[in-house]
Amino acid sequence: MPPPPGVEPNFIDPYDHMSENIALHSTLLTITTLAVGMRLYTRAIITKAKLGVDDYFCVISYCLVVGFSVFMFLCYNKGIGRHLWNVPVQYVVDMLKFFTIGSYIYLLASGCVKLTFLFFYYRIFAGSTRMRYLIIAGIVLTFGFTTSLFFGTVFSCIPVERAWNPTVPGHCLNPIYLPYVSGISSSALDLYTLVLPVPVVVGLNMDLKRKLKVVAVFGIGLFACAASLVRLGMTPILRSNPDASWNLSWMAVWATVEINVGLTCACLMLLPAFLNHVLEGPIMDSMSRLFSGAFGRISGRRTQESKSPIGGHDTWVPYVQQRDSDSQFKGLNSHQMTVRAK
């Protein structure tokens, strides 16, 4: 791609987004790693509970998120984040190859993060028949769309190598439609996954302040959903602007935010039990109560339900169990601790 009039190509030290992108990936990966570590530590050490399906999907999601960042780092070294006229010709094929493989990983990571949420919901809310059907529907849709989009994207070019090297003999499907289908379906499933537990939370027998605390944790996931919508909104720009290496960098930024924030949010549900176990002292104790107090009423509902068939162990109760000294829960009877199910 030739540079604009009056601009000379710069292959030595061109302006790029590498430093900003590395900082973004490093920061988000650090936060995500801490969140996943906290979740697994809480499950295995604090609650001593058997890992459930949601935990396995959490680990798979984390591995995919790390893999996505690795391929994005490779992309940055080959020209993503530079203007296309500043990318040496010999870098272009490798740049597109790494980005294409990274996009495959992103599709799987995005789907696995959603499944982490949905299987967690199943563990907690399966006692409600309506919720159980809605959660199963979400699992089926997420698995179906993720699988279809993954294989549809991978085999959109025959042979696959032609996706990043147009000199290879073969053919590709029209590239216009898949990004839109992927973006729209991902955004819709993000919204579905995030709003699914809200009616149950609204039905809890707790005051408005505590309900808002619970909803706030789910609300953090709105950042991931917003990132997905921004990525979708950038698709027309990517299709119309030939400066691909520059525009793909912005697409990668929002994809990174989406999957990292989503996975972090999926781990925050275990934060109350972690705080109760780790933090000490009056100030830290108050912080722990701030989180655990919001979730404590949910545990009452699960104590009256049978074990979930998924995950093998009812682990929500120890996640959010209150300290004995938390007087706001003393004297509550079983009726007060139940949820208006269905």
UniProtKB/TrEMBL annotation:
Main location group: membrane
Topology within the bilayer: Multi-pass membrane protein
Any one annotated GO CC term: membrane
Membrane spanning stretches: 22-41, 53-76, 96-121, 133-156, 176-202, 214-232, 252-279
Any Pfam family the entry gives: Fung_rhodopsin
Cell location: Membrane
Domain Rhodopsin, chain residue ranges per copy: 38-274
Keywords: Membrane, Transmembrane, Transmembrane helix
Superkingdom to which the source organism belongs: Eukaryota
Family statement drawn from the similarity comment of this UniProt entry: Belongs to the SAT4 family.
Record protein name field: PTH11-like G-protein-coupled receptor
Native species: Trichoderma parareesei (Filamentous fungus)
Lineage, highest ranks first: Eukaryota, Fungi, Dikarya, Ascomycota, Pezizomycotina
